[in-house]
Predict the 3D structure of the following.
Amino acid sequence: MGQVTIKQLAAEVGLSVCTVNKALTGKPRISEETRMRILDAAERLGYKPNLLAQALARRTLTIGVVYPEVWPDYYRKLVDGVRQGLAELYDHNIQARYRTLSATGSDLGTTLQELVEEGVAGVILCSSGHPSETAAWPTLTRRNLPCILLGNDIACVPRLTAVRLDARRCGRLAAELLCHLTAGGPLAILVGNTDIMDHQDKIAGFREEAAQLGCTVTGIYETQDDPALAYPATQRVFAEHPETAGIYIATDNALGVCRYVRESERKIKLVATGVFPELREYIAQGTVQFSLHQNMERQGLLAVRMLYRYLAWQTTPEPEVLVAPQVIARNLQDLWATNDAE
């Protein structure tokens, strides 16, 4: 038997094609009993809807993509993933309107309101987590605007889901690598900002794994994700704890750390973050033993897929989607030779 059509499914249940279509697409004005009878029949017959045809038959879905101007290298890769996801859905009647936010995010409320007035069906939001953004959250609720957080999660935001790095796993992986590299030596962490959930999770995972493997964590040092602060932060590590044998550079501040290690000629093991060209040189030279790729493009791609499925097919995503990191080593980094990621 060939692929079952919607007409054959309608004939099987003795209902009109219109009624069957309402049941399959989650539309109202149909009883739950009838809907379940149709869905059961569809499963029994192996009916597969022509999603592309349905997409072409409906109006174009427009989504908003909002991201901060700060830390452009980080957010650019998340948005690159969004663009990949939209390209993947090129034939499915979906388009995007892109908006950038100021460093403080104080214009988020105005930005969301403008997108609502332009008729967006949902929004993908890369939030920096700045406190001034909180004034915008009522707009999401009041306008019933479906929102997916990308790259971060914030407890008070009314969102469908958050797609972000599995940061706790990232921290645990970094500690595991460093504990083995240093044979249990004391370890330190350089992180951007301890107020950010992603960074908190990395620290928590690192501490958990280090404790399990019997390694001491000598200190946590903030760099505010400013490359210029990474060098003096590394100086502080050794001024306060000269016994430190390994450092986890939990955000994109490896270059200042590497420069200090090279100039001071310290024998130290490093696990960094990212796969950008300058860092690959330090991996090739052996200054950095491993780096953790945060798969930001994949995060963006998944966010688009989930928002589209929710808007087009009423498929509710999981409350949180965590993307695992990948380990980059000297003999793997050629796979990223054309990648300027992170």
